[in-house]
């Protein structure tokens, strides 16, 4: 492996994008065929949670589980906002905007769930991502469980159980 290999791999990726030939989509993921913006966000959240379940059964890569859990929570929030309001996914360019909008709608009653998650996301996510802090097994499992609970709460609140793909990919919890 040398610089020539890196440049060759980069050129291949650039060419595929330029040609619009990224290869066949994974047809088993029904959300990738969705026309509905909310269903796309819901499907992404389901897929991230499914990956967390697989990681917990296999390598127990704590950093990946934490990162995917944060992403699944954000996608679940975004699904709810697009599904239940006039918002579009493109309205949320910054992470904070999704959390702020969920908090403003008081979806989690008086428990301030979105604000509390956003507070520790803001403080700790980048520290985990850049390896300043290292999440342990207990934290990774707790983050995954939080993401599962948030996702299921919002799916039920939006009455979208029939569109959630979590049960298709594995046994839930």
Question: Could you please describe the fold and organization of this structure?
Answer:
By secondary structure, the chain is an all-alpha fold. Helices cover 65% and strands 0% of the residues. It is built from seven helices and no strands. It has helices spanning 3-19, 37-57, 62-84, 95-104, 113-129, 137-157, 166-169. Helix 2 (37-57) packs antiparallel against helix 3 (62-84). The longest helix is centred in the middle third of the chain and has 23 residues, at 62-84. The radius of gyration is 18 Å and the shape is globular. It starts with a helix and ends with a helix. The mean pLDDT is 85.
Summarize the structure.
This protein is mainly α and 173 residues long.
